[in-house]
Amino acid sequence: MKITLLDASIVFLYLVTMVVIGWVLRKRARKNKESYLLGGKSLPWYMLGLSDASDMFDISGTMWMVALCFVYGMKSIWIPWLWPVFNQVFMMMFISKWVRRSNASTGAEWLVTRFGSSGKGVKSSHNVVVAFALLSCFGFLAYGFVGLGKFIEIFVPWEVVQPHIPFAIAHEYVPHLYGIIFTLFAMFYSILGGMHSIVLGDVIKYVIMTIACVSIAIIAMLRLHNTGTTLAVPAGWTNPFFNWQLDLNWSNLVPDANKKITADGFGLFGFFFMMMLFKGIFASLAGPAPNYDMQKVLSTRSPKEASKMSGFVSIILLPVRYSMIIGLTVLALLYYKQLNLGPAGETDFEKILPAAINNFLPVGILGLVLTGLLGAFMGTFSGTLNAAQAYIVNDIYLKYVDPNASTKKVITANYLVGIVVVAIGVTLGFFAKDVNSVLQWIVGALYGGYIAANMLKWYWWRFNANGFFWGMASGIVAALVFPYLFANTLPLYSWPLLFLISLAGCFIGTFMAPPSDETVLKQFYKTVKPWGFWKPIQVKVMAEDPAFVPNKNFKTDMFNVALGIIGQCCLTILPMYIVLWLKLPLLITVAILLVIIVVLKRTWWDKLDN
User: How many CB atoms within 10 Å of residue 262?
Assistant: First the structure.
């Protein structure tokens, strides 16, 4: 164990600070439900953007991305499109302001603005969104818990701790014990201080993470370039572009990397990319899933600030995160044999991140990196916890149990619900095999069932609450069954069938019931102002209000989305080219980025409105 007293002190100081923040901000959070769950909708967009970016900078995801970068090189920048990461571009250009115009507190409450509060399927649609939100929240809590345990175990070996522990524990549950300890810190400050403490904690964490990531990138550059060393990587590793086949051969370098490519199912990379893009566009058009990302959008002060916040996330997250990813990858490639990632044939590439940190970072920097990554876990965990609390308290307790509950009762309910949610998330973490298995289920299966219904709700006036319920229900049931039907298939490849099943549920359910109340549809169309298939409603709205100007920005929005996705890719690969010092690709990337910034300033930023 290489953690010194200074490193441990930095970590301890951070944990104490988080507890103090939660304690100090508890009174502000307890003012009312909106203050607790949404920060009173008074927080500036750049702080919420920092917080949202910090929530996306989690240990589990970063471990996975470092493993991908090691094995797939520059081509790894495409694999996070599984989420898809470019949904932030769609959010930035038009989805976030549409969401924020509802003035709702949760995604389930948002449905009232679209389908009304009565009618066939309204109650069912509300319940199915709550069920989906909680399933995804519990999945993300388990996902974070698994990654944290694997991370801590490398820095604090059980052999060192065991003599000081008054009870015995099986070795396979050591990561879970570590996970529980740090989960309790996250639970304390997020439950006490609500959104206020979560955002402030995330801002502090982001500053620490930035220092840590830049430091890792500099250390990697010095070690790579000062000695004139070249990386032992297969041909094509530094090229982000690809053919139908992946064509990366690690046989003479790290044979287990070839096994990982086969196990991942990414060998036919062209087909894999097309499937990611196909799914990603529909997922992005569906808008944010009901998790911490949507809660941050709903917490902004105005629709205009919601758009700015979503745009800010990519700018401040990707270059910083990928500085760490490429830095740790370079260190791992230079000193691969020292990392001890498992016996031959059983290499665990997800351990590259903690192993590289433990072996190559100097005193102080190690403490900052550990603090930042622990903070990353705590931020993601607390943001997801806040979202789960919002759905249970706002959409179950206040809707069905005690609609007239006092503020004191609401806050108490949030405290109790928070504890129960953490207990469930931790319990699920015990059953998760590894980070990648949980991730693949969340993004490939569960979110696949979410897409069809949530896409149609924006763009088709005839779509109703009954269609929403049956689309979501059929998608979620299929998502739960598919892992057993297609046990040896990447969830992404079975997604089109899942999408078709969900889409069929949407159409059948829609035509089994009358359209939503016309008053609700007209109010939604006037308030949210979406584009799409709204002609019958548009005609009626304009008959009542000839001054109303319909949204005709479809082409502009799509143009901006295309530019934004290219810009997002440039932001991702920029730190990789800097650390590897690939001069020509770096200059081209910077030039493309500058052109995109100038164009989007005129086509997007200057035209933002509420």
Answer: 10
Confidence of residue 186 (pLDDT cuts 50, 70, 90): confident
Contact between residue 126 and residue 480 where contact means Cβ atoms under 8 Å apart: no
What are the helix (H) ranges across 361-464? 365-392, 407-431, 435-440, 447-459
Instruction: Reply yes or no on whether the pLDDT at 156 is more than 90.
Output: no
Rounded CA gap, 284 and 65, in Å? Answer: 21
| Cβ count near 428 (within 10 Å) | 17
| Mean pLDDT on 399-403 | 86
Q: Note the pLDDT tens digit of each residue in 92-111.
A: 999 999 999 988 777 777 88
Q: What is the pLDDT of residue 143?
A: 66
**Is it the case that residue 179 has pLDDT exceeding 90?**
no
φ, ψ for residue 603, nearest 5 deg: -90, -15
Residue written as token pair 């159409």: 507
- Compute CA distances 62 → 140, 147, 151, 376, 597, whole Å: 14, 9, 11, 10, 27
SS3 534: coil
Full-model pTM: 0.88
Sign for the CA dihedral angle at 180, 186, 189, 190 comes to negative
CA atoms within 13 A on the CB side of 88: 26
Structure letter (DSSP) for residue 40 = G
Tokens of 238: 């530094």
**Secondary structure class of 114 (helix, strand, coil):** helix
Residue 280 has pLDDT above 60, yes or no: yes
Alpha-carbon distance of 444 to 441, in angstroms, equals 5
- Report how far apart, in Å, the C-alpha atoms of 449 and of each of 83, 309, 389, 442, 487 are: 14, 27, 23, 10, 17
- Cα(295)–Cα(106) distance, integer angstroms: 7
Q: Which of 313, 345, 379, 328 is nearest to 221 (CA)?
A: 328
What DSSP designation does 120 have? T
Q: Residue 207 to residues 211, 299, 317, 376: CA-CA distances in angstroms?
A: 6, 22, 11, 11
Using pLDDT thresholds of 50, 70 and 90, give the confidence band for residue 62. Answer: confident
User: What is the 8-class DSSP label of residue 163?
Assistant: G
C-alpha span between 37 and 47 (Å, rounded):
16
CB atoms within 10 A of CB 433: 8
Pick 98 or 122 by higher pLDDT: 98
Strand partners, 95: none
